[in-house]
Amino acid sequence: MQQMTQVMANIQEASSSESSIPPPFKTPSRKAPECFDGTQLFKFRIFIHSCQLIFHNDPEDFSQDRKKVFCATSFLIGRATKWIEPYLSNLTIQDPNSLLNSWKFFESKLFTLFGDPNEVRKGKA
Q: What's this model's pTM, rounded to 2 decimal places?
């Protein structure tokens, strides 16, 4: 009987300690952005917002601009790929102002080439 009481006490102790520790938070699996080819200007902002959602959903994985740029680059196709290819031949460049190391510079350059030129006027109007 004493052995049974001890077993019950052990079970209660184990279950109470397990319930007091919350399970670790798991981020939902992220949806990859639609590949961006630069031919449809209105899709630029959709592409950038999709990338930013991925970055904000997983800040540890995307704590460095370089990782953000590489992630976004992996979803470029067509004309946009042809534009980024020369930069990819210099992957070892560590200059923080390099296009591959600065999300702001990358996004700005991508917008200049493939974004909607009327977007600026829409925002200021």
A: 0.71
